[in-house]
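Researcher: Next entry in the queue.
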Amino acid sequence: MAPGLRLLLAIAVAVMGFGVACGALWGSSHWVPVAPGLRPYDPGYMLFVALNNLFVLAMLYLYGFGFGAPTAKLLFLNGFSIGMIAAQYPLGKAIIGLLPHGALEVPALILAATCGFKIGATEILVVKRRSKQAFKELLEAVKSTWRLMLLAVALTLTGAFIEVYVTPRILGRILY
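Model: Structure for this entry, 176 residues:
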């Protein structure tokens, strides 16, 4: 990974972590209905989860064209949601319920946000330097991030499968 992307990755991890912490603090004092429409082992539900998560990945990436700020906001809100949901349960149950699929989905969110931040950082540099080759520089930023986005998509699709077919089985055996 290029040194510039490492910094953007660190920023994405920090934004997500801050969102999780804020969500956990808020969720610890507020009751939130968790997954009211959850339908484990349902292929239609898996498709819904996968498409929803892919939409979030796309938005994290495309919001980068807003100089990265909308990407940061969406990443923070996703972290906030994770923290809020986790705060509804004792720590052990939260880990068991989120870790199997979250171990793939959270890195996918962070990778997509990193790519969005790359687009935003490139835009900022283009404006700052008043570059006459803005389109070319943005195209290079897109080219430099497509592999990470493919990895994020693969992680998300695998995570959706685990969320619908594996996590409920683990929760059923351990918790009940």
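Model: The helical segments are 3-27, 43-62, 69-86, 91-129, 134-175.
Researcher: Noted, moving on.
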